Amino acid sequence: MKSRGQAVWIKFGLHLARAGSHAPGPVFHRWYPKGEQDSIHLDAGHPKTEMKVWLDLVVPSGLASFALETDTNPEDQGAIECGPLRGLLKIRDVDERTVSVLKEFDVEAFLEEASKREPDFSDLTAGVPPDYVEFAKRVSRDLIFPAVNALVEKLRVEYGQYWLQQPRSWDSRDESLSSYCAHFRLMWGLSAEGPWHKLRPGLPTSMGHIEMAAKSRFREFLEEADWRQIQQEPTFAEDSSVVAQVAMNARQLLDEGQTRYALVECATALEIAVQGFLRREAEGQEELVQLVRDRSREPRPWQLFAVTAGRVPNDDITAACRAIKMRNDLVHDGVDPGDSARSACEGALSVVQALVKPTVRKLPSLSVGNLITPSW
């Protein structure tokens, strides 16, 4: 009979605060969860696992300071800030070989030794037992991330806690597996009480990206000519086009990483821009004006090409068409647009800008890559 493996516990923690948000996590009204005793049990997607998560109470800090004051009643508190998230994962029947590797690999000694030499970026797990690496990958990427991400999404979408930062999925192009494990503060132990040991499968390294942005993208920032123009016309038009405001919102959402919301705004701006362009071109010709009004407000690919050919690159027109389809799939069928949504949004904004200038003079992005550009 095959012997059963040993149970391994994983302790983890995660900050939920989004950059720029003063709230460190979920905010409660006249009540707050009492740590582990009010934990939530999550499904890690594997029958031999048990996972629970709970929230720390932020102390001391303004609205939640009652935690340190026994004479303060939480029922008198209108808003109570909680966070960060803590969790405990139990994995049953871990094979003896993996448990043995966890015990024998001295991660502290490894990290200390690695800090004294030049890192080998071609293999950031060099010197770490393969079984240790696979265990860490399974725990962080396959067990903890999906369950915690689903919980945070539920809090954000169903309960309106939009300021929460969802955990990021692991991408080896952005960071090493060890860095990802450090993001979740992963520790392992052979009992729920510890002792605890860091789970770090290699060098905790994040990778930076050097991007040579097109010169035209930098020109979307203010230039001297723009400032001189503002000197001549310093007042803001209160009746500024709605499309300009929607396009600006789309750019902001895109820069903040809110790609799905940016996609909706981009497609909306595109529809307004195309309809406005067609109405302007048909002005004075009542029959054409009526035809434009009677048509569906959703631009067709041939419409986009007809009104933008020669004004923007064909690749941007194609991307704009994709943006409309992605928006429809998202809104009507709940289909996640995926990573390609960003390029589709960029194309849509390029088309919008071409159609409504000078209403939308520029749409710069703060994520253009290098801040130094050659003068070619």
List the helices and strands and how they pair.
Elements: E1 6-14, E2 27-28, E3 40-42, E4 49-57, E5 80-94, H1 96-104, H2 107-114, H3 130-157, H4 177-183, E6 187-189, E7 197-198, H5 215-218, H6 224-232, H7 242-255, H8 259-281, H9 286-294, H10 301-308, H11 314-333, H12 341-356
Antiparallel strand pairs: 1-5, 1-6, 2-5, 3-4, 4-5, 6-7
Describe the structure concisely for a colleague:
By secondary structure, this protein is an alpha+beta fold. It has twelve helices and seven strands.
Structure description:
Strands 1, 2, 3, 4, 5, 6 and 7 form a 7-stranded antiparallel beta sheet that branches. The chain is elongated. About 6% of the residues have low confidence. A hairpin with a 7-residue loop joins strand 6 and strand 7. It starts with 5 loop residues before the first strand and ends in a 20-residue tail after the last helix. With 376 residues, the chain is α+β, with helices and mostly antiparallel strands. Helix 7 packs antiparallel against helix 8, helix 7 runs antiparallel to helix 12 and helix 8 runs parallel beside helix 12. It folds into 2 domains: 193 residues, no CATH class; 142 residues, no CATH class. The longest helix has 28 residues.
